[in-house]
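Box 3.1 A note on notation
Throughout this textbook, protein chains are presented in two layers. The first layer is the amino acid sequence; the second is a token string describing backbone geometry. Keep the layers aligned when reading.
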Amino acid sequence: DYATDGTGEVDGVPLEIVYTDDAGTPDKAVAAAKDAIGNGTKILAGTVVSGVALAMAEQAEQNQVLYISGPAAADAVTGINGYTFRSGRQSIQDVTAATSFVEEGASVLVFAQDNAFGQGNVAAVEAVFGAAGAEVDSLLVPEDATEFTPFARQIIDTAPDMVFVAWAGATSGAMWQGLSQQGVFDATTVVTGLGDVSTYNAYGEASDQIDFLNHYFEGAAGNEVEQAMIDRVTAMDAQVDLFTPDGFVAAQMIVHAVAEGGDDVDAMIAALEGWEFDAPKGRQTIRASDHAMIQPMFQARLVADGDTWVPELLDTVSAEDAAPAEQ
């Protein structure tokens, strides 16, 4: 709507958008992608799951179509091939946003799920914090774990100066409760990414004891494009959330690619490489060399607002300072 001035068209040609549920599984996503490509689709977009994004990137290269990954954060998506872009951030940008929380020589323990997202965060913390002089270790938890007391005790026993938590999904609440009950927040500094709105009240008594790095929360950027996004989402009685900018930016990218490249995939790619534009988070650039999305990041804390918790901006990390190394 925003990118097409409400027409849903590019140069008079309607954009046909088809939505498919990948169910968070690579096999289903690949099957859907093959069907779409077989029906003439030139642009694939989306997914929050890093394993799915990597599989989709492979399909894009094999079939020479444009793929724009969404919130999936695995660093491996960046630079994987010439057909793949991303509309969201990547793990190393999350970690870079937290650099000021760690001191040189500190011991850092990465507490994460044993999946592509968690492993990617371990690698990112080792790369960023390790370069800053920190000693980095990791504690990876099986993705299907539901009891977190033993892992919380391992954190206490390890006694790191800081715990970097990388977690997503339905077990988040139980995980945070386990850490709180075992006294992890009293024993060390805890840093994590601020998740979606539904998680703001998930941290319990530890809410104001956590330092948050952040991809996005409503009002974080305070610019005209962000307000346009907020207005359009709220007009649909929907909630602006953590990954809302990723969908918005993907739409901006698709419209720009088609406006400049028509239905020629190579021309679309050329149009996106090096493109600078105003996005909900601020000024963003698609780095031509590896298709990294260079964007601002945020630091925040949770503050009490009656019976609930809401984010408050502490600092903005510039797009340049948060930029990942070139692939």
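The chain is about 35% helix and 25% strand. The chain has two domains: 9-89+221-294, 93-214+297-322.
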